[in-house]
Amino acid sequence: MAVKRSRSATRMLSVFEEIARTQPVGVSALARELEADKSAVQRDLMTLADAGWIRPAPGLAGQWELSPHILTLARPPHSNESLRLRAGPILERLRTETGETAYLAVPDSDHFVVMAAAESHHLLRMVPAIGIVIPMEGSATARAVLPYLPDEEQQRLLGTVPDAETQREFVRTRARGFTVNDEEIQVGAVAMASAVLGPRGVPLGTLVLTGPAERLTPERREAMGAMLREGARQLAAEIS
Prior knowledge:
44% helix; transcription; Tscrpt_reg_IclR_C; GAF-like_dom_sf
């Protein structure tokens, strides 16, 4: 039997996420953006405030912002935190070996989130902020992870059944050990990703190298991909 969902809880989570996205923000703007009843949003705000998750924005009457309480969840003692900590030295090594920015991304529902990064020292560099969301569509990270997911999960994330060419690309990715996004999301930017596989081959995240296309040239990519692939395998071995 299907379990009934709590619509009020869903709305409250939407209020919380919208505050995080647009803070400081008032009840009228929240209700308008969420297309929700203003009095219901006001009740959600009071509930979140009483629980310590939000607070009035200093000096801005009627405006709300997240409280520092959110930081208590930023470093939870679970596998993602272990992954982040163990990835640090590997990211540093990749940056040193390649000269480019290296980062760790982990799956979060239908997208990915940057968990840790070692920035390139070049004046011209790509700098993904910690916590930034990486979309599923077109990203090197998604391409690195999709080949290792069950069929039904591939279909859900792609929005369709993978066609024959996509399946062949999955095979090539598993054999090669890394993927490349060649200026397909941002002109002038190249990203390379390798999946970090946990027990039973489940992808826990990806290691990514990114930089300007003028430095991540096709001639360099095989060597850099090999470094990335080895880094992902080392990280997987350390957390197994």
